[in-house]
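Incident log, entry 3
Record: ATPase inhibitor, mitochondrial (100 residues)
Problem: checksum mismatch between cached and fresh output.
Input:
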Amino acid sequence: MLRQSITKGSGLAASTSRRALSTSVRLMAGGDTGAPSKYGAASSDAFQKREKANEDYAIRQREKEKLLELRKKLHEQQAHLKKLSDHIDEITKGQGGEHN
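Fresh output:
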């Protein structure tokens, strides 16, 4: 008898505590920020599009700067290689031989 009352009591307490702690899952569509929009969905979409455009622009600017730096380094390396090639040609001219 005591065993039955303990299991009934604990099962009841467990089920009520589970219900008290349970929460509903909030579903959001793609692009939802979770904040309620006070001007409607159209202004929210416009804001999100503008924000994405600004982020994309900033990313493109950084990539452009990186490409310009790489081009500058490439030109410097090519100039250095040309200088070394000219130096090698100058040294080999002084040595003589059948190819000069």
